[in-house]
Structure formats: C-alpha cells, structure tokens
Amino acid sequence: MELKNLKPSAPVPFTTTVPPREKIAAFTVGAEDPKQDSSWSYTYYATWGSLSVEHDDTFMYQLPYPTGQSFPVSQGFHGKYSHNGGDCYSIDFKMPEGSPIHAARAGTVVGIKDDSNVGGSDKKFEWDANYILVQHSDGTLGHYVHLQKGGVKVKIGDTVQTGQLIGLSPAAVDMRLMRARQQLKQFLGDDQPPMEDSDKGSVGVRML
To answer: What is the pLDDT of residues 74-89, one digit of tens each?
Structure first.
C-alpha cells in the first residue's frame, strides 16, 4: 500500500478474516496534514480461509476415489509444473474422464462450481476451474478441483461422509487441503509477496 500524506488506523500490510456473507470495515485513513495533497493506492489478495486454523496432523485421509481402484499421481507435493506457493501440497491424480471422485474426509460442503468448460495451464484460468469445497471438523478445507462440467454431485450445506461420491473428474483431478475456513483478505505492501507465492494456503496430509 502506498500512502501520501495519509495515516492508516491499523498497521499495513493488513490481514483479516471476513465471516461469510458479511461486510466489515477493514481500516480507515486520514490526512496527516489537511493542507497538503493526499493520495493512496493498494493491492489485495483474497482467498478462502483463516490462517488461525490448526490442522489435525493425526488424521489419516482416504484416497479420493473408490476402494479397490488405483490411479497414477501425475503431480505431487511441490510439483515443478504448478504445485508451488499456496498450492504446494496439492496432488493431481490422472483419471479417465467421468471417474467418480469420493470425499477423502467427512465434512460440510461450503462451496461448489460446475458450470465451466474453460481451462488451461495459464494462471488466468484459475477461477474457471470447477470445484467442491468441503469444510472439515478442524476448520480446514478439502478442495477438489478441475471437475467435469456438470459433474458436482453435492450441494452447498450437504454433510458428506468419508468415501461418499461427490463428483466426477475430467482427465485429471487435483485435490488439496487448505488452512482455509472463511474468506481471508490481505492488503499488501510493496515489499510483501502475494499469498499465492507462499506455502500458507495448503498443508501436507497422510493418506491410507
């Protein structure tokens, strides 16, 4: 954030958690010298979650497909192709189109998208991907990404059990676990890297 002749009411960079469907006042700025010109500019990054969530590292996740089946991992933790920053603990499974995706852990469905047939490796397609977001008992989120158009089999508010069918895959499906719970907004200073360039968005897990 760049401020000229302005003083913020809270330290910047500023980070906070915004509860769902709510608006909050982040902070205010006021002129230091009312007789001088003032200006300001900022950038921000928003994602799901709260960094205060603590993952239960003792929990053992199931693989996100039916028992008895197996699929190759096309990209794992810290994969050089795209698993970096907040996505560093994602796992990509290579599957035939239309393969069933099952919940790796029980929870409540808090987000879905299944109306897109647009995609690609470029970052500009990041928000076009179909997904299911499941909130777990410890507040973390299971993020099942790159699903088939029309392939989401649950709705927001549904309670899902471990191993339950939740969606259908395209040619590959990406599963990640996020330290996320609600929406996080971060106002960034010039010398602070965006959150997507850090590893704070996801955590490693163990699978059966």
So the answer is: 776 666 666 656 666 6
Q: Say how far apart CA 188 and CA 12 lie, in whole Å.
A: 7
pLDDT digits 0-9 by tens, 190-202: 333 333 433 444 4
- Rounded Cα–Cα distance for residues 4 and 186 (Å): 20
pTM (predicted TM-score): 0.68
Q: Give me the residue label for tokens 């958690």.
A: 17
Measuring CA to CA, which residue among 177, 175, 153 is closest to residue 164?
Answer: 153
> Which class in CATH covers the domain with range 60-178?
mainly beta
Q: Where are the domains of the chain?
A: 2-50+183-200, 60-178
C-alpha distances in Å from residue 124, one per residue of 151, 152, 154, 158, 170? 22, 22, 27, 30, 19
Residue 26's SS3 state is coil
List pLDDT tens digits, range 33-66. 999 999 989 888 777 777 778 888 888 888 888 8
